[in-house]
Amino acid sequence: MLKVENVSKSYGNLKAVDNLSFEVANGEIFGLLGVNGAGKTTTFRMIIGLLEKDSGKITLDGKPINYKITDKIGFLTEERSLLLKLTVKEQVIYYGVLKGMKEEDILNKLDILLDKLKIKEYKDKKIKELSKGNQQKVQFITAIINDPKLLILDEPFSGLDPINVALFMNIINELKEKGTSIIFSSHRMEHVELFCEKLVILVHGKSVLEGNLKDIKKQYGKKNIHIIGNVDKDELLKIDGVEEIIETNEIVVRVKNENFVSNVFNYVAKQKNITKFCVEEPTLNEIFIEKVGEEYEK
Length: 298
Fold this sequence. Notes:
Layout: E1 2-11, E2 14-24, E3 29-34, H1 40-47, E4 55-60, E5 63-64, H2 67-70, E6 73-76, H3 88-98, H4 103-116, H5 132-144, E7 150-154, H6 162-178, E8 181-185, H7 189-195, E9 198-203, E10 206-212, H8 213-220, E11 223-228, H9 233-237, E12 242-247, E13 251-255, H10 261-268, E14 276-280, H11 284-297
Parallel strand pairs: 3-8, 3-9, 6-7, 7-8
Antiparallel strand pairs: 1-2, 1-4, 4-5, 9-10, 11-13, 11-14, 12-13
Helix pairs in contact: 3-4, 3-5
């Protein structure tokens, strides 16, 4: 288990991380979210020991993180950190040896991961000859070659199409099943919703929202009602509890909370040619925009 307890970090007068606390259990995928400059990268660097914290405590399985412990950590950075003149095999051997692995074990694991990511034929290709998406796959391999106890994924799906995102997700879920603690950061909220159980949202280095994703959605209260059929937008807006109407290929009615759903249903039930009436939770993207926007307005 990773524990971050009351951690703070400043750069001069800038408070990059402000009294931040969270836990990531074994076999759990945890979302650390925020806009650019929110403090995510600083937090990651403190966790892996690249930055010294000003105060607080960070432990992995109850032990402070030092160079011995970092061999158990994998970190996929948002920026490319590959040596372009090396081959895929040379690059992965380099990172694996840094993690204390034997070359034989590295090569055996490399073959398995290349196969899972559908790039076996690139094993002896130079990094610079690969597409951005395939470079991302190699960088992912370097982060997990050591079967990490803790895995930090910062924008892991950058440059990937949906098929390759699914390949990554399969491997991430396999690591989760093995007990790896995983921190996931992305600006794509739909990716976060796919597999993060708990999350923290940072604004100016401070947690403004945290907890179980299901509980966060429930506490948020608002509901989205998706309707297809002959309805009048102006009439819908007059209904008590309706906050907003969004029109795309269907009508989306946002209500204050579930208590107002019946008001909308009573109106829609009287209309003709209704082929869809579906009540859904708000998306994490909606919650993120509203919550972060509120903090910036303070």
